[in-house]
Each structure stands twice: as structure tokens, then as C-alpha cells.
Design brief:
One of its GO terms (molecular function) is kinase binding. InterPro entries: CNBL1-10, EF-hand-dom_pair, EF_Hand_1_Ca_BS, EF_hand_dom. Pfam families: EF-hand_8. This is EF-hand domain-containing protein. By secondary structure, the chain is mostly helical. Among the domains are: 76 residues, Orthogonal Bundle (Recoverin, domain 1), CATH 1.10.238.10; 85 residues, EF-hand (Recoverin, domain 1), CATH 1.10.238.10. 56% of the residues lie in helices and 2% in strands. It has 13 helices and 2 strands, in the order H-H-H-H-H-H-H-E-H-H-E-H-H-H-H. It starts with 7 loop residues before the first helix and ends with a helix.
Length: 239
């Protein structure tokens, strides 16, 4: 098909034009800090109402999973990357930003719950839409510009081994804007994105960011823990 006939040079050129993600922390330092806490007992799970689509057993399971990855109560970029199987750093960065709801550079437990709920087939779209919007909002300005969507489509294509020309990506972006017809012809607001997803629910499936494959290590860890979290993990794998 058209996606497989473009040259390798076009693929390389597109990859070079994507925004560079922020740098990762030192793996050796991160690893030594995590090892120093390996024998520390897991603190009790926080008292909280389960988010929509989860039950209290799943929250407890994910709390234990979170604490196998976190250092000092948060997950860094490096620790997150070690648990994922993304093929390129751009998609890994977009996934991290989507998890990191307050953009403070680390993932807390409540943010981790939201991210894992994106992989959960039982979670409603109202939980998944903000997560996916953050992934697409490349520059973090609260709106999806043509450049944001172009960058995300290019990164997603590279992640999935697709070779797309700039013209092909531009055509997808043009169609998206024409189909949605946003108030601002150059950007899509959150409310407009929400309406688009309501009309096309498949947009918030885990496959939208290749999650079932790329979060493989996290899903396997979740499935091996007791307390019902395996259901959430299996939901992600089956998407």
C-alpha cells in the first residue's frame, strides 16, 4: 500500500523533524536509588475512592505495582522508560506526559492510576479523553494545533514501523480538521476534541498510542499481582 512505498530517507527525514523529548535522568543513579529502597516495606495503600472503572482491589494491586517502580513515592522518566517497550523516544515521551497530569516531571500514584485506567476497557471515555489529549498536546498549550497532530501522527507511524511521506501525514491532518471543522481553523480545543471522541469512541482505545504492546512490562507485572488487578492488565492486552 501507499504506506510501505515511501523511501527510508523520507522516514528518517520525518523522524528528524519531530520535536526532541526532554532528556532522561541518569540510569545508573536512578537504579542505585531504587535498589537502596528495594528492601523497604511497601507503605499501606492510601484511602481513596476507586476511579470510575476500577474497584478497591484493583487500586490496591496497582498501589503495590506502583511501589515496585517508584522511588521516594514517584516514578521518574527513567523508571517509566524501563517499564515500557516503545521503539522510539518520542512516543515514550508522549506517554510519560500523558501520565504526568500536572507536568511536574514525575508520576505520582493518582496520576499512575489515571494512566493505567486508560488501558482499562471498563473505564468511561471521560477518564480516557484527558489522558489522550495530553499525549497529543505536544507543546502543552491546551489546544491541538496542526503541528501537534502532525508530530503525533509521525511519531506513531515510526513506532508502528509505517513509512509515511510528509504529504500523506498532511492529508490526514487536513481531513481531521475538515471533518471536525473547529472554531479556530488552526487548532482544536479540548471541548472540540471531546466531541470528536464522543462521535468516534475508538479514538480512546489503548491502540491509539500502541499501549497494549508498549506497556507490556507494566501489564505483565499487574497481571502477576493478587487482588484483582489482573483484570485491568488483561483488558489492556486484549485491546
Amino acid at each position: 500500500g501507499c504506506c510501505t512505498t515511501a523511501s527510508q530517507s523520507s522516514r528518517k527525514e520525518m523522524g528528524n523533524k519531530l520535536p526532541n523529548p526532554r532528556g532522561f535522568r541518569s540510569k545508573s543513579r536512578e537504579g542505585s536509588r531504587r535498589n537502596s529502597e528495594a528492601n523497604s516495606p511497601t507503605p499501606p495503600a492510601p484511602r481513596m475512592d476507586p476511579p470510575p472503572g476500577m474497584d478497591s482491589n484493583e487500586v490496591t494491586t496497582l498501589w503495590h505495582l506502583f511501589n515496585t517502580i517508584a522511588v521516594n513515592g514517584v516514578i521518574s522518566r527513567t523508571a517509566f522508560a524501563e517499564q515500557c517497550d516503545f521503539l522510539n523516544s518520542q512516543m515514550m515521551e508522549r506517554a510519560f506526559v500523558a501520565f504526568d497530569g500536572d507536568r511536574d516531571g514525575v508520576i505520582g500514584f493518582e496520576e499512575f492510576l489515571v494512566g493505567m485506567n486508560f488501558l482499562n476497557s471498563k473505564a468511561p471515555p471521560s477518564i480516557k479523553i484527558p489522558f489522550l489529549f495530553r499525549a497529543y498536546d505536544w507543546d502543552g498549550d491546551g489546544a491541538l494545533s496542526r503541528a501537534d497532530i502532525t508530530a503525533m501522527l509521525g511519531a506513531n507511524a515510526l513506532e508502528n514501523g509505517l513509512v509515511l511521506t510528509e504529504a500523506q501525514v498532511a492529508e490526514v491532518v487536513r481531513y481531521t480538521f475538515e471533518d471536525l471543522n473547529p472554531r479556530d481553523p488552526e487548532s482544536i480545543s479540548y471541548a472540540e476534541f471531546e466531541r470528536m471522541v464522543e462521535a468516534k469512541p475508538r479514538l480512546v482505545s489503548p491502540s491509539a498510542i500502541n499501549a497494549s504492546k508498549s506497556f507490556g512490562k507494566i501489564l505483565v507485572l499487574g497481571a502477576t499481582l493478587g487482588g484483582g488487578g489482573g483484570g485491568t492488565a488483561q483488558a489492556g492486552q486484549g485491546s
